[in-house]
Specification:
9 helices; alpha+beta; UDP-n-acetylglucosamine1-carboxyvinyl-transferase, Chain; four-stranded mixed sheet; 25% strand; 3 domains
Length: 334
């Protein structure tokens, strides 16, 4: 939220907080440049499309934080990567989609610079159902000329929530089968009120904390429909939960059990949840698409003497350069 607030204020919007409610007034957006931010993550890339619609130009920081292939002497990707505490992850899907919709984008050492008189609808086939890339195309297509079809789109609750918010603002968005989203561009959007969904990653983190310590934690406002795969895995490793009127209660009554987890795009098991899956028995994690720091965070999240084995099927898009295979973890840091 801090990064989003900083971006909004830099481009001219006013942001106020009161009693858990955020009010944004974007009537006076005049600055297309938010090139220097106090924190590094991939969120600024999502500001490119809205700024192009408002001002025809956008400049956001290049936030590549960790480039392992550069250290290894491998060639750098043309569009670079954007990083946060999960390490280096490519934003080329975002940039490729924006270019296909008519944006001219230049990647410099410090920033992404984009220009467009008008974005136009097209068909975007994402190589991977990326949440961020899907959100970028949604933000670009709602005000673009014509119809935009997103194939292999992400279907996470956060994407559906964004669609719901955009629809309230006047957007025309249709969810189709087989990960297809169709957007008919409109002339303008308007303000609205929207209640964001609970953070399912935070809910999963507290669930793991309760099960690992044999505690009892009520996560207020958590929604079971957003955690179906995780809740199944939690029970299989020996955890338990109970859906209550004001949230979900997590606890454990017996010993933990071994379980093999295979990560996958939603509704599969997310890589961010991997480190909390097991704390007492051998664990096998098979990653459909993993990034280096996913494994790094897992490696420090298990008690001493537990084995972590990660495997990568042939279709994995980004091989991990710090694979932990049958490695003993000697301490528990989290």
């Amino acid at each position: 939220m801090e990064t989003v607030t900083e971006i909004l204020r830099k481009v001219g919007a006013t942001v106020t907080f009161r009693n858990g409610t955020v009010t944004v007034n974007a009537a006076r957006v005049r600055n297309f440049r938010a090139a220097q931010l106090s924190r590094k993550n991939r969120l600024p890339v999502l500001a490119i499309a809205p700024l192009l619609h408002r001002l025809g130009r956008a400049e956001v920081p290049y936030v590549g934080a960790d480039r392992p292939w550069v250290r290894l002497g491998a060639p750098r990707d043309r569009d670079g990567v954007a990083g946060d505490n999960l390490g280096a992850r490519p934003v080329d899907f975002h940039l490729s989609a924006l270019r296909k919709m008519g944006a001219r984008i230049v990647v410099t050492r410090d920033s992404y610079k984009a220009r467009a008189k008008r974005l136009h609808g097209t068909t975007i086939a994402l190589p991977y159902p990326s949440v961020g890339a899907t959100e970028t195309v949604l933000l670009a297509s709602v005000l673009a000329d014509g119809i935009t079809t997103i194939k292999n789109a992400a279907g996470e609750p956060e994407v559906v929530d964004l669609i719901s918010c955009l629809q309230k603002m006047g957007a025309l968005i249709e969810l189709d089968t087989n990960r297809v989203i169709r957007v008919e561009g409109v002339k303008k959007l308007h303000g609205t009120e929207h209640r964001v969904i609970p953070d399912r990653m935070e809910a999963a983190a507290f669930a793991v904390l309760a099960v690992a310590t044999k505690g009892n934690i009520l996560v207020r406002d958590a929604e079971a429909k957003h955690l179906i795969t995780f809740l199944n895995a939690l029970r299989k490793v020996g955890g338990e939960y109970r859906v209550e009127k004001n949230g979900i209660r997590f606890f454990r009554t017996g010993p933990l059990k071994p379980y093999a987890i295979e990560t996958a795009p939603h509704p599969g098991f997310m890589t961010h949840r991997g480190r909390g899956a097991l704390h007492q028995k051998p664990l096998s994690i098979r990653g459909w698409r993993l990034f280096p720091q996913h494994c790094h965070s897992w490696s420090h999240s298990f008690e001493g003497g537990r084995d972590i084995c990660t495997r990568y099927p042939r279709r994995a898009c980004t091989p991990c350069c710090c694979t932990y295979r049958e490695r003993k973890i000697s301490h528990f840091r989290h």
